[in-house]
Amino acid sequence: MKKILLSFGMVALLLGACQQGPVRYTQNSPEIETVKKLIANYDSKNYDTSMYADTSKTYYNTNDDALSPSEAMDYHRQSEVNYASRGFGNEHQEYEMVVTDDGETWVNSWLEWGCTLAANGKEISVPVHLTFQFVDGKIVKEYGYWDPTEIVLELQKIEAEAKMMEEEQTE
């Protein structure tokens, strides 16, 4: 009898250990769909802030200087003058949603961003990591990380060439 009770106890313990808890990682969620819509809006130059909480903070390549949702959209609008075209490609896009040990919901994305510079037609491709914290279906924090070096150097080169040509014309 002792062996039967012990066997039942072990089976119950194993079944209890196999029960699924709440989903902590997924590649399909409403939050991921929100991020995909945000990316599509960016690509179509639709600067909609309705996905963000009013108090949301956006950090691009920094941990200190936060932008409000409208300031983040202005940042994108202002950079438009540099590009004949720009946007995220359809390939090499990865999205995941995780719920942290503290219960925070984050969507991480790894994307390929590309542009054609307006001044010289040079095409540049940059890997980008974006991560978004969600509360009640709204983005409350966004962090974006990418290496802008190639674009900055190319824009500086274009500016230097324009300045040299201007100086030559004034001589």
Automatic annotation (TrEMBL):
The keyword Signal applies. The lineage of its organism: Bacteria, Pseudomonadati, Bacteroidota, Flavobacteriia, Flavobacteriales. SUPFAM superfamilies: NTF2-like. Keywords: Signal. The keyword Ribosomal protein does not apply. This is Nuclear transport factor 2 family protein. Residues 1-20 form the signal peptide. It comes from Flagellimonas olearia.
